[in-house]
Amino acid sequence: PEFGGGIPDGKELKCYHLGGQSGPIGFPEQLDTRYDHTSLKKQGLSIGSGAVVVLDDTVCIIDYLKKVSEFFIHESCGKCVPCREGNRQMYMILHKFATGLATEKDFERLERLSFTMATASSCGLGQSASTALDSCLKHRREEFQAHINGICPVCLNSRKYGDQYAY
Asked: Which of 133, 158, 145 is nearest to 71 (CA)?
């Protein structure tokens, strides 16, 4: 709290996004990690550009990942199919989760898509576009599952499930 003031209004830390949009997402259980390359790497984290975004417990992780996907859709040069189409597909699958329309098969689709983008994209943008998603699937898979079951507490308080599929 002495640096940055902490999270206002008594809210709890949900996660933090390190190193810009192409960086991994960290979670409260990783907070005690030293902020150096070696220590962060052991935790699956990285410094990247040095940017840090802090999210409180009122943020739906799926909605945040959709915003990350929108960034990569916008930034993609469009020349490379794995990046251009992969980011669009990733957004559409995340939208299915956000609206309660995803199924168990969508986990597999996201994981396969992430692997393809990371290994087949022509440049670092496409190769790192799914880094945030990967860390969330690894550490907070239950939040994705809550969307399949229509029980995400953040979303239940903010909107109805089953919104029209769009993008």
From this structure: 133
- Looking at the predicted structure, is the pLDDT value of residue 165 above 80? no
Name the fold adopted by 12-158.
de novo design (two linked rop proteins) (1.20.1440)
Give the residue among 123, 34, 52 at the shortest CA–CA distance from 84: 123
Q: What are the residue boundaries of the structural domains of the chain, listed by start? A: 12-158
b/e per residue 91-101 (b: at least 16 CB within 10 A)? bbbbbbbbbbb
Q: Please tell me the distance from the alpha carbon of residue 39 to that of residue 52, in angstroms, as a whole number.
A: 17
Q: Confidence band (pLDDT; 50, 70, 90) for 159?
A: low
